[in-house]
Write a structure and sequence with these properties.
The structure holds two protein chains of two kinds. By secondary structure, chain A is an all-alpha fold. Chain A contains 20 helices and no strands. Classes of the chains: A mainly alpha, B alpha+beta.
Amino acid sequence: MNAEPGNINQLTEHLFRRESGKMLSVLVRIFGTAHLQLAEDVVQDTLLQALETWKLRGIPDNPAAWLHRAARNKAIDQLRRGRHQIQFDHTDEERPLLESGYTMGPVMDSYWNELTMEDDLLRMMYVCCHKDLPAESQITLMLKTLCGFSIAETARALLTTEDAINKRLYRTREFFRQNRIRPSFPPPAALSVNTAPVLRSIYLLFNEGYAPTHGSELMRREVMNEAIYLCSMLCRNEHTQQPEAFAALALMQFHAARADSRTDDNGDVILLQDQDRATWNQQLIREGIHNLELSAGGDTISRYHVEAAIAYEHCKATKFADTNWQRILALYDMLVLISPTAIVHLNRMAVYRQVHGDEQTLAQIRLSPYIKEWEGNYLYHCLLAEIHFASAPQTAIDCFQRALAIVKQPAERRYITEKMATIQNV
Amino acid sequence: MNDYLLLFRGGNNEWMGTSPAEAQAEMEKWTKWMGSLAAEGKLGPSQPLQNSGKVVTGTDKVVTDGPYMDGRETVGGYLQCKAASYEEAIEIAKGCPILEQPSGTVEVREILSMNM
């Protein structure tokens, strides 16, 4: 009963966070999305009960099962009370079973097993990425409900205020109250179409953490890890796995493997050519390669496939000079067809320069229909500055000045200012 | 070695609104603290207590609900431990994670021994 030396159980990493996401998904299945807040309260209550009970008794042998049991009991409590207080969704065929005293117990028990809980979490992921919710609300909801982030943590992760997060969540709960979305897997025929917004949101979330300008190093890594966790769940489950998801997972792993090498201890930007490639996480790169292989199954090529292939080319080069720019440019030629945005075209120009040199790149840029959009992007002015760096230093300085007028992040500003100083010192 | 009883009060309400990660971090502090006591062979029985109970009073054995007190005065749990002196028992108490919360207190009491 009491803890013996060496007999004190440890909690596995992120146990509370992972279990809260799963428990919430099951509770939403029980109460309905209209009662998201109730499900969140039950999860919170369960974790507090665990904390109070385990503190002096030690952690039970199977902490996850203990949590599920506690949440199950609290859910039954709520259902019994809720008969008079809460109007549940009666169009759901499982609802009458949950409301009858005869069937409530067994039906309830069937919900709390590891296998179906993962399914529930994935169904909830599709709910979070409902097409009528704005993108910022989708990623907020994923962090809050699936990843167990608090309001404060979500605000820190998405670089916004707690007020803003509260507003997003309020509107989302209102949306669910009015629209009564039932968590479900997309039918096989619509899998790819319905998963596209889910992958987009996961990748958007990943990029929140990947941005080198993110305030906190620790939070940056957490957010990237959560995005990878969500995507690997999609890949693991037979209802949701598909080539695009494997490609997106590979892409994020290739990026995450190199994330630490992109800034120095002061948070200053280190360019690709100057990064210490020995610090790249080879384990993540190997996992990425494996997932990239698994992504080859389908008959369509998504932007994730091409972007992962590009990221892989960078991972493969043991030094900057070994980079296969020809191959990367060929991949960019594909990418601009799939995803013809101004920023992709701009990135292609930077790669084009590595293959064809300054003069030809400048000629290409002048012909591009995207110049107007590029004008508002500091990276465009930096690229122009690089092109003029050797031949026309004054023009390069002008370009850097224009970049400085746009960019706000201190790390990028420091980088540009330093670059300008090197020209002026020549 | 003498036996000491540590009584814990307060330190509960602050946990409303915390995240799973924070709750887990708190849990891990307790595991670490109790684990180090256990490793030194100093950990005795320890249990958390329900917030509410009954009080039986006087010769009439009157039963009332309670004790109803301010949350920070209610005993939330106890831990028995071994220590060479009061000083050591106090040092053990100082390591308790409940003291990281403003309302948390640990009362340290020596258990009377049969040895004279």
